[in-house]
Amino acid sequence: MSLTTRRTVVAVAVFTALALFGAACSSNKDDAKTGTSTGDTSGSSYDYASLSGTLNGSGATFPKAFYEDAIASFADVASGVTVNYGGGGSGKGKTDLATQVVQWAGTDSTIKDADLPTFQGGTVLYFPTVAAPITVSYNLTGVDKLQLSADTLAKIFQAQITTWNDPAIAADNPDATLPSTPIVVVHRSDGSGTTSNFTKYLKAAAPSTWTLDAGDTVNWPTTTQAGNGNAGVAQAITAANGAIGYVDLSDATASKLAFASIKNKDGKFVAPTLDGATAALATAEIQSNLTYSALNASGADAYPITAGTYIIVYAKQTNAGIAAALKGWINYVLTEGQSLAADANFASLPSSLQQKAIAQLSQITTS
């Protein structure tokens, strides 16, 4: 079965499963005790066949295409485990895990310190999974190549630049013929890790220009439009000539959108590619909880709006079977699953980070 077909089957299964489950319950950072591993974390030697249970997840739409492919492939080796993923945005994923509605969540942004006490299951572990460019996608008749610097991008998304032939855009594109078409800015309507990473990039790369701060949600100008999820933003861009928005590479590619090249820290205009994301990952500093930032990375080949994404789970589980299934699922994503990343338009993890994440699986224990 092809990945595209399998992804469709998984999506149907997810909607069905999530409609049926109500409050499926599972069960602050570096104090989790080490437990006994449920299997060899080397990948193919892991005893996936012995696992059973249902793992419901929700959260970031940024990695959804990758998770759908990984879920379909995981089912081939762990037939006793049903893994569901409902999307909904990083904010929803964090909320659903906090209230123990799901056993795992996807997020592209970290949990705010002030929100940690709301997580009813205790210590949360971050498992980095893949990374990808956040594209600046656009729909502009007659313009098939576009370059944007951080300051110009900030002004566009703050509605300070309102037409495509603005002098600032023209300065970034000296060889382009730009129309006077009005700019239609499209952003996320939901609490989103993609929004968090995009606005963090603008805050870091255009600090004297960007004034809207950064986070899962920001106060966008009232003249802008909103779309639900990455797919919703992509759809809104497709529907309006003159539109521009931020979309993960997978959804932007699926929607056949045009992408702008973004001026990086080294002064080079770089297109959103997996090679550009890998170059950005190479300089990312890994924190003790395995979170990191590849935004505004140094390096001539680095794509500056590269975002990582995480699976988050509770370190302490109350059900041994669910704990074992979670370990198996995450281990698969970190090992065999990495080979699926490129086909879904994601960059796999650097080996050093992959190994740290695999080692952290031992911190998932039962009480």
Summarize the structure.
This protein is an alpha/beta fold and 367 residues long. It has helices at residues 3-20, 64-77, 90-98, 150-157, 167-172, 193-205, 229-239, 249-254, 274-281, 320-334, 351-360; strands at 53-59, 81-88, 104-107, 124-139, 147-148, 184-188, 225-227, 243-248, 258-259, 261-263, 269-270, 285-286, 292-293, 306-314, 316-317, 365-366. The protein has 2 domains: 3-131 and 308-366, D-Maltodextrin-Binding Protein, domain 2, CATH 3.40.190; 133-293, D-Maltodextrin-Binding Protein, domain 2, CATH 3.40.190.10.
Would you kindly provide a written description of the structure presented here, covering whatever features stand out?
By secondary structure, the protein is α/β, with parallel strands linked by helices. It has eleven helices and 16 strands. Mean pLDDT is 90; it is low at 1-41. The chain has two domains: 3-131 and 308-366, 3-Layer(aba) Sandwich (D-Maltodextrin-Binding Protein, domain 2); 133-293, Periplasmic binding protein-like II (D-Maltodextrin-Binding Protein, domain 2). The protein is elongated and about 60 Å long. Strand 12 (285-286) and strand 13 form a beta hairpin. Strands 1, 2, 3, 4, 6, 7, 8, 9 and 14 form a nine-stranded mixed beta sheet that branches. Strands 5-10-11 form a three-stranded mixed beta sheet. It has a two-stranded antiparallel ribbon with strand order 12-13.
Question: What is the total number of structural domains?
Answer: 2
Contiguous helical run count: 11
Low-confidence stretches: 1-41
Mean pLDDT: 90
Largest sheet: 9 strands, mixed
Strand content: 15-25%
Radius of gyration: 20 Å
Instruction: Please identify the structural class as seen in this structure.
Output: alpha/beta
Total number of beta strands: 16
Terminal CA distance reads: 40 Å
Q: Give the overall shape, derived from the CA principal axes.
A: elongated
> What top-tier CATH class of the largest domain fits best?
Alpha Beta
